[in-house]
């Protein structure tokens, strides 16, 4: 019995040691979080979740891991990936998100008229298409740099009420920086969408590779164009308050397998 117990202990500590830095940084398998799922395979597997391709890396050249974005709307409990056509399960934990109440003077941002509604739908489709991008490149770094050196103001996932009416939850992280502060790419990537959008204002989408996409909003200035390759820490624009914003700040979304997840995870600032 004692031998069995010590063998178990060795096994547990070995499996803990097998986890690399990226797994420890990113594994927060909550609603709106990220699950790192180890894969028992000798070659690069094809992984899908909810029928979307999933980011896969060979961590420390030791083991393959899938890095899965979990929707805010996912039910707590068991979920499964498709790995080379076979099922691999992982658990999702519940997370509570608090409420935020915002008052807007421009009522178009709460209840848009028909012409704005048509524009919103058109822009929504463009953005969903951008989030569906899956390029083969490996992300340059998964521990992201801060896009601006600033205080985290509004966290991801807040349930939001504008003028008392509930709207979509907060899809990203707000960083409160002064107007005109340079916004830098947290990892290298390719610019896949830019524009002046109704809610998001001046916006840039960067594809970091394998479905890992960043979106930067409310910019006062856009310094890049679609097709540009942007290096890690390359300047893509400047902080502003365009679109539905009550003051200058950067709104930053991070998406994995076409699911918006908490950007704080990628800068080591996740809070349970
Ligand atoms: Zn925001």
Description of the molecule:
This protein is of the alpha+beta class and 272 residues long. It has two domains: 2-92, Peptidoglycan hydrolase domains (Immunoglobulin-like), CATH 2.60.40; 99-267, Glucose Permease (Domain IIA) (Distorted Sandwich), CATH 2.70.70.10. The protein is 15% helix and 37% strand. The protein is built from three helices and 21 strands. Strands 9, 12, 14, 15, 16, 18, 20 and 21 form an eight-stranded antiparallel beta sheet that branches. It has a four-stranded antiparallel beta sheet with strand order 3-2-6-7, with no helix packed on it. It has a three-stranded antiparallel beta sheet with strand order 1-5-4. Strand 10 and strand 11 (165-167) form a beta hairpin. The longest helix is centred in the middle third of the chain and has 18 residues, at 114-131. It is globular, with a radius of gyration of 20 Å. It starts with a helix and ends in an 11-residue tail after the last strand. The model is unreliable at 8-17 (pLDDT under 50). The chain binds zinc ion.
């Amino acid at each position: 019995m004692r031998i069995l117990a010590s063998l178990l202990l060795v096994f547990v500590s070995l499996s803990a040691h097998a986890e690399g830095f990226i797994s420890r940084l990113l594994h927060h398998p909550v609603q709106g979080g990220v699950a790192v799922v180890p894969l028992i395979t000798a070659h690069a597997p094809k992984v899908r979740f909810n029928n979307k391709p999933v980011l896969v890396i060979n961590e420390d050249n030791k083991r393959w891991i899938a890095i899965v974005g979990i929707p805010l709307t996912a039910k707590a409990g068991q979920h499964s990936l498709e790995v080379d056509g076979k099922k691999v399960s992982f658990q999702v934990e519940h997370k509570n998100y608090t409420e935020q109440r915002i008052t807007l003077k421009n009522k178009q941002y709460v209840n848009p008229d028909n012409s704005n509604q048509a524009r919103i739908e058109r822009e929504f489709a463009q953005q969903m298409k951008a989030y569906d991008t899956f390029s083969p490149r490996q992300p340059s770094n998964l521990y992201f740099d801060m896009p601006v050196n600033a205080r985290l103001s509004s966290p991801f996932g807040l349930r939001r009420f504008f003028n008392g009416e509930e709207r979509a939850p907060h899809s990203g992280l707000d960083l409160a920086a002064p107007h005109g502060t340079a916004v830098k790419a947290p990892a290298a990537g390719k610019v896949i969408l830019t524009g002046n959008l109704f809610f998001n204002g001046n916006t840039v989408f960067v594809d970091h590779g394998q479905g890992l996409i960043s979106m930067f909003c409310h910019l006062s200035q856009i310094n890049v164009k679609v097709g540009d390759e942007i290096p890690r820490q390359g300047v893509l624009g400047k902080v502003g308050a365009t679109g539905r914003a009550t003051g200058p700040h950067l709104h930053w979304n991070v998406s994995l397998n076409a699911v918006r997840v908490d950007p704080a995870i990628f800068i080591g600032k996740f809070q349970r």
